[in-house]
Design a protein that fits this description.
By secondary structure, the chain is of the alpha+beta class. Helices cover 26% and strands 26% of the residues. The chain has one domain (15-120). The protein contains 3 helices and 5 strands. Strands 1-5-4 form a 3-stranded antiparallel beta sheet, covered by helices on one side. A two-stranded antiparallel ribbon has the order 2-3. A hairpin with a 2-residue loop joins strand 2 and strand 3 (62-64).
Length: 121
């Protein structure tokens, strides 16, 4: 899942929009993740384990530390048992400034995913 949606104006050509389903806004992704945690807490027995994959993102020029948010949203029902960071095998290109060969980058590129190992309390 990604926060980018292909049908959104201008997003249809974005690599992430072509590869994954998505949401219009970060709060939609947040609601999905919170719902997933709630359902996992309902179906897992005590000490049951869930692996939750997520990635930090930049949305509307704002950094969202999604892995930290998920850990906070899980508090009270889960404890973090372990954390794996998986770097991407390939990196997406940095956008080029129109009419020049100059590369433009406004934020640090996020080239990794988190696998949170959560244990049901």
């Amino acid at each position: 899942m990604t926060y980018v949606r292909a049908a959104r104006k201008g997003n249809g050509n974005m690599v992430m929009a072509k590869r994954f389903g998505g949401y219009w806004r970060y709060d939609e992704l947040e609601a999905h993740y919170k719902g997933t945690l709630k359902e996992a807490a309902r179906v897992l027995s005590k000490k049951g384990v869930m692996v939750f994959k997520c990635q930090d993102i930049i949305h509307n020029h704002k950094m969202h530390c999604t892995h930290v948010n998920v850990i906070n949203w899980a508090a009270g029902e889960f404890r973090i048992k372990d954390l794996f960071i998986l770097p991407a095998k390939t990196r997406m290109a940095i956008p080029q400034q129109a009419g020049t060969k100059k590369k433009v980058q406004k934020h640090a590129r996020i080239f990794h995913s988190y696998f949170l190992v959560l244990e049901r309390l």
